[in-house]
From TrEMBL:
Pfam families: Adaptin_N, Alpha_adaptinC2. This is AP-1 complex subunit gamma. It is found in: Cytoplasmic vesicle membrane; Endomembrane system; Golgi apparatus. InterPro entries: Adaptor_Complx_Large_Subunit, AP1_complex_gsu, ARM-like, ARM-type_fold, Clathrin/coatomer_adapt-like_N, Clathrin_a/b/g-adaptin_app_Ig, Clathrin_app_Ig-like_sf, GAE_dom. The lineage of its organism: Eukaryota, Metazoa, Chordata, Craniata, Vertebrata.
Amino acid sequence: MSPSVRLQEMIRVIRGARTQGEERGVIQRECAAIRAQFRQADNGTRSHNLAKLLYVHMLGYPAHFGQMECVRLIASPRYNEKRVGYLGAMMLLDEKQDASLLITNSIKNDLSHSSQYVQSLALCTLACMGSAEMCRDLAPEIDRLLRASNSYIKKKAALCAVHMVRKVPELGELFTPAARSLLSEKNHGVLHGAVVLITELCERNPDTLEQFRKAVPELVLMMKGLVMSGYSPEHNVAGISDPFLQVRILRLLRILGRNNDTASDAMNDLLAQVATNTDSSKTAGSAVLYETVLTVMDIKSESGLRVLAVNILGRFLLNNDRNIRYISMTSLQKIVQTDHNAVQRHRGTIVDCLKDQDASVKRRALELSLALVSAVNIRSLMKELLLFLSSCPPELRAHTTSGIFNAAERYAPSQRWHIDTILHVLTTAGGDVRDETVPNLIQLITTATELHCYTVHKLYRALITDISVQSLVQVACWCIGEYGDLLLRGECEETEPVQVTEDDVLDALETVLQSHMSSPATRGFALTATMKLSTRITHNVDRIRSIVSIYGSCIDVELQQRAVEYNALFKKYDHMRAAVLERMPVIDKSSPGHTNGESAGGTIKELEPAKLTQEIVLPQEPSNQVCDLLDLLGDSGEPFQPSPSLSSTAPGPASSTAGGDLLDLLGGLDVTPAPPSVTVYEKNGVTLKLQTDRQTDTGMTVTLTATNSTDGDITGLTLQAAVPKSVQLQMKAPSGDVIPAHGLGQVTQTVLLNNPNKVSLKIRVRVCYTSQSSVCQDTVQIDSFPSTAW
């Protein structure tokens, strides 16, 4: 049996193995036999044994013991052995292996061989696994071959030079003259290699880029020849003359024309010619047109040419190939901000892609549809987005709701439409909305004073229909607590009146309190709403008192604390109850300190909400320094000023004023300024601020706040932190992973630090996010902290 058949027999046996163990047994026996033959003298079967070993390597089994055999075969004078040796070197060796240095001299000798096929073997191997040292040693040989007369050698030498430039960028100066001369060749293979080499040189050296901008007319003529040439069976692919070379030339033109008016003007006519004369019915034509579009959008092209490029992408959206539809929407996403009107013409086709079965196409269509929303089309496009929300996959719901909220915030035609849209989203996908949705909607409702009656009626109907959507239930409870009198009045012009009794409202709130689906936060909203109704109804105050008293012994500490404080209002401070539970004033969104998850221009000042706690405190001296909240109870117009008497422990007469009573109820409420914040990262429109709050002598809370000033949402945000070994770190869950555009929201993450040794504190934070379909990752070293830290 001849050795070649022996290789085929080994492959047949391996493929016929029924189990993995049987396959391993066959391969172990063959490898043992190959090792034994490698130890023997030259028996004429070395190349066949190495070929079998390469097949074993392809199956994933170790074959490193064949590296030295590759070196021996490369040095062999016989072509068939040299061919297998070079193949083995490309598969078994890399620049990290010491054995790769042993073949440098053999490659140098073969580069000067009389046979072009031996030269090509050496060129391919050097281009595949040549290290930086090998590239420096053999670069003159490659430059010599670039000037050879043999086209077969020149095209391989050009691609080998590309590898060398990538490994050792300073070698680009050596290859620049030869690369320029290759553009005059007629052979398409040589031209392809030359264009690839020039592209690499231009990307790595600005001086070389300026030098090759003089070659733009020559490249334009070359491209025109390809576009207008007749049928050539040697280069024709699906009716397109050498699309591979066309694509490479267009990429090079894109680099040369970027930020350069002269070069851009020289190629405008060519790009228009390619865009109109290339058939897009086949994949080859689509590839050329796609590169044409990218070039048009990247250079300083004429406005008409950019519209033509957008129309080409619009035609791609109608293609049956999902890959072509995907790249079309990816490209439209990049240019929608600069060519908004041109992209708007294809809005209908883009919206239709929301119904595509492919998840990637559907996601791209969603992102593009959200980017197309404007004040003109907000109503029609929002209908399509809401329809998509009702049937979109779970992994897209959070992104969809975020985009709808941002669009409604920016382009809402009326407050009623804005409220209806948000309520529709909460009803459809309330479990997938951001955390700040509830306070944002509450703020919107408070500002729409003429819609209070309409809103409370609509939310009440939603509450009695379904209490499983927590965000919707929270907003409904808040509105019923604030505007319950409007609900009971039953007079609403915007919607048909519904007669609601006091018992109906209390039954609905009690259902929320008792439901196992209600979260602790939702129960807190419901209990506060029930308490507020005590000043808005007349006949069921005793029932409210009994409901509140029940939760005075609740297992949830927050809910119990609220109930105890409300009971205190009923018993000890009943004369103040009406004033304390008055309707909330209209929230000014632009007021300092109010963010609701959004930036209000200028520095963001976050005030920690003060918790109402009931404590046993010593009587304090009378004081009329009362917060804005206490202005509801008295006529004092003086602003609150901290005084030493408030922090003094010396006993004094208790205050009998309303303000003094409430201070006693609040248990010595202390108003402290927000901790200072430091900007630690600012790049690509993403700003990361650090805020510290020292809790104990050795413990500290660090809050990282990320905002986004770009035109598109930042997605996939992750923050990772590292501290010295002596510091203990605990990272809480972030508030989300999507930062809304235009600073309309923020993502916060809390980090708890324990520094028992009080060492100098340093934190390294890794920021990772996705912006405009590109993944960005940076690391920030934080060595300086605000004064509250160690």
